[in-house]
Design goal:
Blueprint lengths: L1 H18 L8 E9 L2 E9 L28 E5 L3 E3 L2 E3 L2 E9 L3 E8 L15 E6 L15
Antiparallel strand pairs: 1-2, 2-3, 3-6, 4-5, 6-7, 7-8
Length: 149
Amino acid sequence: MYQIIFSLLMLSISLTSYAQINLPALSQAAEVSQKIGLTTVTLSYSRPNLRGREPFGEHGILVPGEKWRTGANATSKIVFSKEVEIHGKMVPKGTYALLTTPQEMAWTFHLYPYETGSYTQFLEREPLIEVRVSTQQLPYSVESLSLHF
């Protein structure tokens, strides 16, 4: 009888300790923060990985010409500690959703006042600002999305 109780106790302990293992997410959370002049800019996003897929194409992770949440898992957000000027337009201090429209030759960045919820809520809205940036072909492959200032 004691052997059965001991076996059940050991099984429950091993199951409890197994349940506490935190495996890494497929798309790791990332945050980059930098002081630019007198303003602190903080960008929070998740880093999708190619994992053998192509960036564009039938089995790609991006659809050219469609707005994207600029990362994985949740809407990417950027926080400005003070008012900033972007592409000749003043943007008040605050928190903003960052979406992009990827193309092979250029990406368009869209900034919206941030709200919690899915990035899809921004798709039909007019962005506060849009900036188009040309792409560059790198001489090496990049596995994970990386955003920097």
